[in-house]
């Protein structure tokens, strides 16, 4: 297993690719734009190569193994309450586990909206809270009134300037909130 820690992923190429991949439902109807489209302006050949190396992508992996690797790049870190978060980064999927129980998937068999947003937001108070918050944000769901959604959008946008130009933070956070809202 190719293990990584939070410090390893605290880099712009990781977050550009992560945000571009992990919000498949992140779409702003009013602006007719998705989170991944907004992230496109930040993609470079260097960020794409970094992600391909990180996930173990190679030509044919999607056909041969449906994008899954036997030994994927894996991030493992402690959560409150003695729990362990493990995230497997495959070329065709990202799988999330807490204490070895799968809680989410970003790939072809999406398993999203599995954690209440308020639980994810509580992670911000921890050491490395910003990274944990952003890592679990794709699995969050919002079941609230519209004015609360705007507060949540602002909170998400405030966490992004460390990794992204401020010019896209509001737009991307608006797309993310739209994707996290329950149907």
Structure, described:
The protein has 183 residues and is α/β, with parallel strands linked by helices. The protein is 43% helix and 20% strand. The chain contains nine helices and nine strands. The protein has helices at residues 6-9, 12-21, 35-40, 45-55, 61-65, 117-121, 129-136, 146-159, 166-180, and strands at residues 2-4, 27-28, 33-34, 73-79, 83-90, 93-98, 101-105, 115-116, 140-141. The strands form three sheets. Strands 1-4-5-6-7 form a five-stranded mixed sheet. A hairpin with a 2-residue loop joins strand 5 (83-90) and strand 6 (93-98). It is globular.
Principal-axes geometry comes out as globular
**Low confidence ranges:** none
Instruction: Specify the biggest β-sheet.
Output: 5 strands, mixed
Q: Provide the succession of SSEs.
A: EHHEEHHHEEEEEHHEHH
- The N- to C-terminal Cα distance equals 37 Å
Strand % is 15-25%
**Count of alpha and pi helical runs:** 9
Widest sheet, order of strands:
1-4-5-6-7
**Which whole number gives the mean pLDDT?**
92
Counting DSSP E segments of at least 2 residues, the number of strands comes to 9
The structural class is alpha/beta
Fraction in helix = 40-55%
Q: What's the Cα radius of gyration?
A: 16 Å
